[in-house]
Amino acid sequence: MVTGMVRPSMVSTMVNPLASFIRRYFAQLDAVQQSHYVYANTLVFQAGDTYEFDFLAPTGAVTSDEYLTDGDTADDRSFLLFRNSDYTINASNMTLEVDGVIKVTGDLHPVDGALHHAKITFTAAARLGFMGSRYTLVDFYSGILANAVATISGVTTSNTLGLATGNVEYPAENVFGSELVTNNVFDNTAGWLDARGTATISAVSSKLRATAGSTSTFGASTALTGLTVGEAYRVAVIATSNNPAITIRIRVGTTQGLSESDILQSEGDGLVSLDGLFTATATTMYLGTINTGHDAGDYVEIDAGITARSITNAITYVNIPDAQREQYTLIDGSWIGQELWDNTPILQSNWVDDGGGSYTYNGDGSFNTMRDGVLTVGSIYLTVFSVDAITGNMKVFADIDQDVFTTTGITSATLVAGSANIQWTRGSGLSTCTLSDISVKRKIEIA
Q1: Cβ-proximal residues to 45 (8 Å cutoff; 6+ apart), any chain
Q2: pLDDT tens per residue across span 15-66
Q3: pLDDT at position 400, please?
Q4: Among 64, 265, 433, 447, which is least packed, fewest CB within 10 Å?
């Protein structure tokens, strides 16, 4: 319904300093893009351990499988999914509570578009490696997952799933192991190797330099020893070249020559950085650069501070671009997103752009609209606007929901989007109005 209200911006000024608001990012997972999360080290649970997280319920029926959690193999799986508007739960090793209420396979999942809290309690051994998809990378979930908390043998690790940028999130409680790069200060070349037998290795101004002896592929590498096969490690490297045309490849490999490109690699020309994870496939592996597109005498340097360390765990964001991450502010118990209205609506006949964010409708009985295609189908939105003048009745709608307004003043409406467009038009009969100060933001309610 539509209600008269004080605008949120006015509330923040009069009641709370803006800085006091709680803000965070949520990532919108998209099944079409196959968005999902993967744990670097699969979580291994025993009876009595728990896993908790928040999930955004859809606003309508889910007609195909959408996995919220899953294991990493066909055995000891911990799957929870939406199927035909029901929960499906691996009852052989877990129980599920949603908002404090026990749920079983066949119970209907909510369709209110709100953020709900799930708690899995394990009743037998289980593994959990994926969120938002099945372990076979099918049946992706479209929605928001947040605040994942694993408690294993009384030890808790937590992730917000709220990175603004980047694709690796470490738990708040993450502990890094000891440094595996034996020489990363570069006052000498100890521990570093000529990767392909075509370079001269030297230490220059606290950088490790590999100088090409010819136009053949060249580089430098160092051994990482004492690794545990199957465990995850974090590496961070910055490399630059004297010739911006040189293609630099920072790599992790199993041999001194760094011949593999599929374990972990970052590639670019002139300046390249890498901050990522790899899973050890051998107890000794190698880290460094392999470079091409150069002349004899060109060089590539690795900055001091290069690091490789084991981690307790991390979550990798897969197919979740920055454009799918939005900052939200907690206002009156709901998360409110960023401004979507940019004062560039499409105006049909009878609508006039008055300038300065003001729009006037002079009705002739037709249902001509002012619209803007800024919505995502199935999401909930809060629109706030000023009705500066009105005769008759007008409505704002998003296909599924519509609300009628008849009086002047600041007005708000919460709408479920049934199409990409938010629209204004007459309600019935001959109507006129002037609207200004329009705001449209996504709204995530907390169940």
Answers
A1: 51, 78, 122, 125, 126, 127, 128, 150, 152
A2: 334 445 799 999 999 999 999 999 999 999 999 999 999 999 999 888 889 9
A3: 81
A4: 64
How close are the terminal C-alpha atoms of the chain, in Å?
19
Q: Show the tokens assigned to 334.
A: 């709901």
Q: What percent of the chain has pLDDT over 90?
A: 88
Task: Tell me the CA distances in angstroms from 255 to 48, 228, 230, 389, one per residue in order.
Answer: 43, 17, 18, 75
Q: Do residues 26 and 330 touch, judged by C-beta distance below 8 A?
A: no
Specify burial of residue 123 (Cβ count, 10 A radius: 0-12, 13-18, 19+).
middle
44 burial (CB, 10 Å; 0-12 / 13-18 / 19+) is middle
Residue length of the chain: 447
CB contact set of 275 (below 8 Å; sequence gap of 6+): 166, 168, 234, 235, 236, 237
Q: pLDDT (tens digit, 9 = 90+) per residue, 261-292?
A: 999 999 999 999 999 999 999 999 999 999 99
At residue 365, the pLDDT reads 85
Residue 174 gets the label, from left (phi > 0), alpha (psi -120 to 50) or beta, of beta
Q: How far apart are CA 136 and CA 278, in angstroms?
A: 20
258 with 224: CB under 8 angstroms? no
How far is the CA of 73 from the CAs of 129, 180, 192, 219, 314, in angstroms?
9, 30, 38, 38, 19
> Phi and psi of 164, rounded to 5°?
-75, -40
Number of Cβ atoms within 10 Å of the Cβ of 178: 7
Q: What is the DSSP letter of 436?
A: E
Q: For residues 58-79, give the mean pLDDT.
A: 91
Give all domains of the chain, ordered by start, each with its CATH number. 30-174 (2.60.120), 192-311 (2.60.120.260), 335-445 (2.60.120.260)
